[in-house]
Amino acid sequence: MQPWFTTRRGLAGGIASSGVGAGTLLVPVLVAMAIGPMPWREAMRVLALGVLVLGLLAAALLKRAPAATGADAGGSASGLSLRETLRTSTFRWFYLATVLASPVMFIPFAHVSASARDLGLSEALAVGLVGLIGVGSLVGRFAIGVVADRLGRAQTLVLMQLSMGASYVLWAMAGGHVLLALFALWFGLSYGSIVSLLPAICMDYFGGKSVASVVGTLYSGAALGNLLGPVLAGAVFDHSGHYLGVMAVCGVLSLCATWASRQMKRSGQARY
Fold first, then answer.
1. Residue 2, number of CB atoms within 10 A of its CB
2. Is the pLDDT of residue 191 over 70?
């Protein structure tokens, strides 16, 4: 999607990725409604079928931008190849920031509902916190795109990395639904902003020649945190009986991700 846009790429990325926030908000509600009249395994099969059909239909409608193929200029697209990108210090700092931030991004999805239940909240309120993350994410993807186009996408990424870590303070202080809801909204806004900025920054810094490969490689760092973060957080909780240690580690990781993002910004755009 990124090669289609030039001047307002942050906003375009936010709009395109807002489906993730909308899905985080709507799909859990739809699944909860489906589990009532049918067994949960059957509900999951219906969800899987819907993802397969709608996902394939949506993917079939995608078109590659002329700028990505060089068709608009009669030559090759500008930018670095994936191999050239991997050799730059800018990408290495960018990848490190993504790896460090990814556990901070994904732990709340797996554990904030359990944390709420431990505080005595009802099942509906506990599960609803994930929906509130989706609401915050949806707002972040739209609003931050506009801000980033004015302030600069790399600088906005630095601020959102810091904001995401700061939101954990509310989780640590929460004794009931109000602070947990505020945490979910704040965290969702920061998380959604970061996710919508990553592809646009790849396009800004490395060009459109191999932007799909560059984004895919960058997201492998996020996948690592998604895989390990929630599992390790659960192990820490099982050992200690609380999430305070998890929150402290996430705060440190967020500060490190902020620093790595700042180093990426200082390294600047790769030459091509």
1. 23
2. yes
